[in-house]
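Deviations from the work plan: none for this task. Representative record:
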Amino acid sequence: MSEALSAEDLLARIAQQDLAALGELYDRYAFRVFGLLMHILSSREEAEEILAQVFQRLWAESRILREEGGSVAAWLVVTARQAALDRLCVVRKGKLRPAARAEAAGGEKGTDTSSRDTKVSTSAPLAPRAASKTSGLRSGAGKPGPGGRAKLAALVGVPPAWLPRPGEIELIDDRLELLHKVINQLPMSQRQALELAIFAGLSETEIAAELGEPLGKTRTGLRAAVTFVKHRRRAILGKWAANI
Amino acid sequence: MGCQHLEEIYELFLLGALSEQGAQELREHLARGCPHCRERIREAAETVYLLSLTSKPARPNPQVKTELLHGLHKK
């Protein structure tokens, strides 16, 4: 299959159940998705299991994604993050006291993880393992302490209609260095908070507890960090010429 | 309901970092079809996508792809 085909061309073929197209899309994006999964889960076995599930889901939902016009690259990354955080939630539930487990049972959203419960190692840590070790953010953020958290506060499903359009992110492959440059300009405490939100799925309240900060400080810092990145988004993506 | 006070929270909403109360407020607002917020949510998803790319790429075992395609071929 030609290298010239865009990801969206491949998606159109996948929607027609073209396995070779799925294989080609996998070759393009698996290393990126797998890196994200490894960062969150720190387990090759679990990350590979979820990687396969994400592509199986793409196979099943490709027509919907195509109709809605969302970027397939963004869909893969956002869906993988959610699936990995759902898995973390299951792992944490397995480590929680019965009372906390009952609380957690009322709060989980997202993909159905029930069939996978038995595969999760009960010795798994409670948070993204080695959050700073492989991090692009390199924040050195600590891991959530003993007891973990009862649930992922408000893990949000992202419908394809909310995803960026393909043209909005097409240049990102060549501009990741700029993204890291922007992230590295954030104060350390904000980077730590951001990392815990992205890769551990922690809420503002949990991040404040994890960092030993007042909630107000964490909340302000997290919003400032997101706003900083947001305002440089178009420059990162090459839509605006700006010095970063 | 105005949208001004929601400006800072779209990204945190998508990341799942908001309190349940804050997330619920935004969900209800979006459910009412606010066009401004629908557009802002898409921009926020772009930022969340970028933030997720700050992890380092890694190469999975080639067997994962083989088994994936084999499993789908059998269906």
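Chain B has a mean pLDDT of 88.
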